[in-house]
Amino acid sequence: MNRSSLPRHPRTGVRAVGIVGGRPVYPIKGGAPTLTERRDEIMRLLQDENYDGDVAELMQRADTVAAQIEQANQRDQRLRALRSANLPAGDPQPQPEQRQQPGMQPDERGNQHPVSVAEAFVRSEALATFRSRGLRGESGAVQFEQRDAPAGTVTTTNGVPTVPQRVPGQIPQNPDFPLLIANLLDRQTSSGQTLEYVRDTSGPVSGSGTWNKAAVVPEGTMKPQSGPFTWDTITTTLKTVAHWVPITRQAADDDGQMMGYINGRLTYGLEYQLDRQILTGTGTTQMQGILTTPGIGAYQPGVGSTDVKLITLRKAKTQGELALYPPDAVVLNPLDWQDIELDQDLNGQFRVITNVTDSGAPMRIWGLTVVTSVAMAAGTALLGGYRMGATLWERQGITILMTDSHADFFLANTLVILAERRANVAVHTPRAFVKVTFAAATA
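Predicted structure:
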């Protein structure tokens, strides 16, 4: 591949060193030129009267570097001001080992961590130690964990936490614009392996039920009682999602290829499986899927209905609103979303898409965020108030392990990289979800 044809980084202007998994890989850990070197190079090119490159692009790079220099100066001023400020008496000081925790401190250029689990892994002290052992001819393993939030210490008895994680109350709505199904849910960190939460199993709340008997009460008369409400205490455990890939020792010594393996295969594979578990997990040896949870709503066009998918979704949204849990998102199979986007009126105009060139716009329909996934079976959809109805509990972030002590891989100069995470879904309000079936019911 011609190096000059590789793309430049949009922020730093540094040219990529290669393409891994369809994505450009940029030099790291001292491989990129410094800010001073980039400034001097651009100044040299601007002064060169015979420069025959793209002048507009060169001017844009000059503006970018100038802005970064100004930002660096401002950061330096703030840093000096913080260092000269006096802390109040009794303020606890961070310990040296806290400052050196891999993936948390700024790198040598001041970039805040964690940038990604892959970059944090290749910069970690654990990997450096593993590589140094390899140079000495020693075998072993390396483990690195990228936590989404700090995890506490759990006292266990025979592998079972003495105090399970109990989830109180209901989760309020907080709209989001996700890229994955997991990002539709409220996400929390569990401090143990056992998850215990309350699920609302009350009947329908709309219509003339007894869920709400609040009324104006004359003085001296009895107040009405609402309900009854029914609740089930659900006890489950967090489930482990994991997989591994082989990698040659030569590839593992190259940070760019290492990051490509971790980001392009391992990390994405975990997210890919997590989405499927959220939808269709059986809830026994797997996570609890929303579609397999008893009590969720269902909508299907009646016998003889000619409603197109666009109309079916709108009517299903009304059903969710009547249950008093307004939907905020819908998950569709890509084939069904294709049918909706390509739906046309009698004049041949698309009903949903106003500009077919605007492919980067957020996907929305009837005010709902749209997420497409092959985990959803074609012909069906899941509409609901995701943040109101379920919470994704995670015990840890993604853990990366690498070893040469697997089978006969040592003799083949091959290593193993393993990635895993522990999580489960608490579907505490099933009525917040409506499963949609697009085909009309048959007699």
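Summary: Residues 76 and 405 are 46 Å apart (CA to CA).
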